[in-house]
UniProtKB/TrEMBL annotation:
Keywords: Hydrolase, Membrane, Transmembrane, Transmembrane helix. Residues 341-365 are annotated as: Disordered. Residues 276-365 form the DHHA1 domain. Residues 62-184 form the DDH domain. This is NanoRNase/pAp phosphatase (C-di-AMP/oligoRNAs hydrolase). The lineage of its organism: Archaea, Methanobacteriati, Methanobacteriota, Stenosarchaea group, Halobacteria.
Amino acid sequence: MQTAGYADAFARAERFARENPELVVAAGALVIITIVGALALLRYRRPVGVRFKQALEDRDHVAVLMHPDPDPDAMAAAVGVGHLAEQVGCEATLQFTGQIRHQENRAFRNVLDLDIQGIDHVSELAAESVVLVDHNQPRGFEGADGVLPFAVVDHHPGEGTGEEFTDVRTDYGASASIVAEYFSDVGGKPVPPDVHESEVNARFTLPSRECTGLLYGILADTRHLTSGASSADFSAAASLAPGVDEDSLDRIANPQVSGETLDVKARAIAGRQVEGSFAVSDVGTLSNADAIPQAADELITLEGITAVVVVGEREGTVHLSGRSRDDRVHMGRALENAVEGVPDAGAGGHARMGGGQLPADEEPSREALIESIFDSLEGDV
């Protein structure tokens, strides 16, 4: 009886399908869409670090590219991404453009003994698959505008994306925090400085060098977790703590400072122009452009000053570096507005920190530039 019932039901279903083919097709399409949607939902519910790991697994070799003149956050993020790639069987070559001049950046590279390569031309990229870290649009080398990155990991505002993977979190204070989170996502274990990586029973590990670098990258980009840091940055720093080498961290944080850097800081303070709680200082011509942001860091600590911009010139390029602890001033947008209309000028950044460059021969005049900066800080442009 039960078999006959099944046969009768099947016959009715077959007859309905013949009489209503369009409904059957629609129902089939709905089932397929539902299945695909469910699979997509499951895919994107996976932790971001797991998705990035799987993207790396599909590559044999990646070039992990930092922004020009990389700082500790960029170098730390690159080292972390490179280590994750190597643990899934993907060769990683860490590359950068420009130079590493700032004493803190040089100490970071030397103390951690980083194997990173400088490039000047697109042909020098080590692999076809490029991962951008701490920036989201290739720049700083010939042919950069023709590079289509396979992945982007960044915390800066911008429109750049990766062909396969994009993770841009502008609410994070450092790219190093994002990379540290990837290791948490895949169950990575920090390796204490006195323990060999092979002694840790885990599929993914984060050696002491990488832990130390990532923590310093977070500290450097958030002014020791006091400026622009989110709860995620604090969580990332805590997750790295078991693997940090305190001696290496101290050596990076306290490098020797050049005489010129001290001189530029003194010129910035002595020559500052103040309007209300805003200060702009022209430090003139110098040989080390990295002294300019250091001077801005010094100037913002002055009592009564809530936003500062330091201007200096090196080899035909005018550099701007700004700091803000004033809720009225978004420093990145202020500098962008200040140089708007100047040919070949570029500027931007975050609310608390920004920078920019413009050709010296396109500068209207130093006095006009400073006036434009003050107007922008005051919201008049």
